[in-house]
Design brief:
There is one protein chain. By secondary structure, the chain is mainly beta. The chain has one domain. Strands 1, 2, 3, 4 and 5 form a five-stranded antiparallel sheet that branches. The structure holds zinc ion. The site of zinc ion has 8 residues, from loops.
Length: about 80
């Protein structure tokens, strides 16, 4: 799924407090919190080629442990 020559570096942010993100996991379809795994930085040229932001946060589903990039997480819709 990735092109040759892509440089990906995952680093943890400096914050010590846990960061959670709530959403629907596209893998297990659970409404669940996601743990922040790190930040994925793409080479600016490659990001432009792929039409993705150069920096994306990476999250791990607490329900099924799948690692996902932020755009993959489905927002929870408010039902009134
Ligand atoms: Zn999941």
């Amino acid at each position: 799924m990735f092109r040759n020559g892509m440089h990906v570096m995952i680093t943890r942010p400096n914050e010590t407090q846990p960061i959670l993100h709530y959403g629907i996991c596209p893998s297990c379809h659970a409404k669940t919190p996601f743990d922040l795994k790190g930040v994925q930085r793409w080479d600016a040229e490659i990001a432009a080629q792929l039409n993705v932001p150069p920096i994306m946060t990476v999250w791990q589903c607490r329900n099924c442990d799948t690692t996902l990039m932020e755009p993959s997480i489905i927002p929870i819709e408010q039902d009134d």
